[in-house]
Here is the input.
Amino acid sequence: MWRPPELAARAAYVIRGNSAGAMTRAAPDLYPHQWSWDAAFVAVGLAHVDVPRACAELDSLFAGQWRTGMIPHIVFDPSEEGYFPGPDRWACAELTDDAPSSPRTSGICQPPVHALAVERIGEIAEAHGGAAAEHYRDWLPGAYDRLLAWHHYLIRERDPRGDGLLTIYHGWESGMDNSPRWDPVYARVVVGADLPSYTRRDTAVVADASQRPDPAEYDRYLWLVERFKQAGYDAARIRRNAEFLTTDVFASAVFAVANEALAHLARRLGRPEHDELLAAAELFRRGVLGARDVRSGLALDTDLLTGAPVRVETIAGFAPLVSGGLDTGAERGLLELLRSPRWTGHPDLPHPVVPTTSPASPDFRRRAYWRGPSWPVMNWFLAWMLNRRGAKDTAASLRTAALAELSDGSFAEYYEPLTGEPLGSVDQSWSAAATLDLVL
Ligand code: 9YW
Here is the structure.
């Protein structure tokens, strides 16, 4: 068991070890490239030890930004070949002029946590003062332009209905790949006979295949990529011919607060978009609140091809605690649910962390990736967002629980929530980054 100061020192060492120049590998073997929301979170961790390196991390991600403004979910390290699906399989620059040819990237995106990260890095840099703060101030205007283009892309292409809910085309876009949230949405995806053959890499690195998406799930993931390629990565064509199309209530909540954060940065820089960004924050906040299930209080995704809400009990249901905007009674009710035996108060949890699916739900699978395990990065992110909302007590207990789980020092990708056993990759960058921000 590591105590916080040593744990933080080890976390900094792990993040440095995963560095490949200006990008940090999401995980040393399993994910040897830069992932979008990982990079934002890793940059927050890095800011505690090296503000310029944190800024460089985001610059590396921004270098992969598409002409449309989309920040792709993976920016590939050209010197790495050990990941599937890699840049040849995505073939983005080959199929659309919107994608950069260097660096090579994937053709989908992930939750828009970046403006929140940039705001947080600013707080850390200002607390450091001196050269760190100065570096951040010089860097911020360029980063702001990138973020603004990204947010405009999301508003234009991912909320075409204008109802304050982001649309996703693939479970990977949610960052919660095999969450039961997507089971009914994937159920209608019919894998074509012409799906090119492939060899998975994740199951070669994580020996216990039961932790990972099963082969039928993985075929569907890869099939959707073929569909995007057939559409030339054109957003309107993808939507028109979609086999998988759903709102993502968690990403929408993230986008609400990210717009708020970007509005603060606009004001700081004297940019004219301040009011427009606050209006976007409000629109998405309303979208999330409108997606609540009256019985449980949890926010639900809607399968856009059937119009049906997806009734599951996952961590994403707490989206209103991220977006804010609940009245006092409703907020108290949702916080109580979070602390109840269905969630962090479950009697079998060694640490009161937030499992990705409620242990009391029939969908719960204790070792299977996003179907139950506790993810350090999510515990930390929720604690951060709760703090931002002023729910200080719940944030503090989640922070303590997250650190207790992380104190084994493995920086696991995810943990078996009922035993605390580390699972998935060890030395995962964002688990180390979360640790740094939790301790420091
Ligand atoms: C994959 C890197 C990524 C995360 C995702 C997580 C997993 C696997 O790892 O994706 O092959 O894309 O689901 O949220 O960004 O840590």
Notes: Residues 33-158 form one domain. The longest strand covers residues 166-168. The longest helix spans residues 130-158. The chain has a mean pLDDT of 97.
